[in-house]
Design a protein that fits this description.
By secondary structure, the chain is an alpha/beta fold. It has one domain: 5-stranded Propeller (L-arginine/glycine Amidinotransferase, Chain A), CATH 3.75.10. It is built from seven helices and 15 strands. Strands 1-15-14 form a three-stranded mixed beta sheet, covered by helices on one side. It has a three-stranded mixed beta sheet with strand order 2-3-4. The longest helix is centred in the N-terminal third of the chain and has 11 residues. The chain is globular, with a radius of gyration of 16 Å.
Amino acid sequence: MKFATLNFQNNPHLGIFTFATDNFCFTNKEMREKDVLLLQKVLKIPVYQISALGTSLIGMFIGGNAKGVIVSNRLQEEEIEEIKKCSKVLVIETKHTAIGNLILANDKGCIISKEIESFRKDIANFLGVETKIGTIASMELVGSLAVANSNGCLTTKWIKSKEKDLIEKTLEVKVSCGSVNFGSQWIRSGLVANSNGFLAGEETTGIELGIIAEALGFTKK
């Protein structure tokens, strides 16, 4: 199975509650067992259930790639220790908590918001990839407006040509434009993906699923 649709507690914004790489997936502790098993089946990786700042909003608070995850020091100490049992962790001291919204990464490169520019070298060394400062649609929320794996990247149609070029050069993949959940341009909110498969919110249309599959390289497998 290369893809599936899934809601969390009737909410189609699955990406807000889940974060995945090619080596591991983090989701919230309220996720039903059958949904955890579906994540495992599609993404073909271990799935760990955690909390972040006492909430289920895992996808917002975590960024990174298969090498490890990046979180804010504002997460609770016990939460960070729990994540460390499953993955390498880079903790950055920042006023920002929603680190996942500020990082777009795969195993080849990384784009970060200028909001965390002071950590660029630390992030590059930790993830083991070239890391550049960028925007999407002139916005700092590069992690909210796109999802990338090692085969491709899906972004909002609002992206500008220079932004697209930077992502393609840095992440070494082709960038395609699409949407999730019946037209939403906040790509990550409705999409969880790695190089093995993807899950989208249940409001995502068949046409959107086809575009996602092509953008992330699954129609070629």
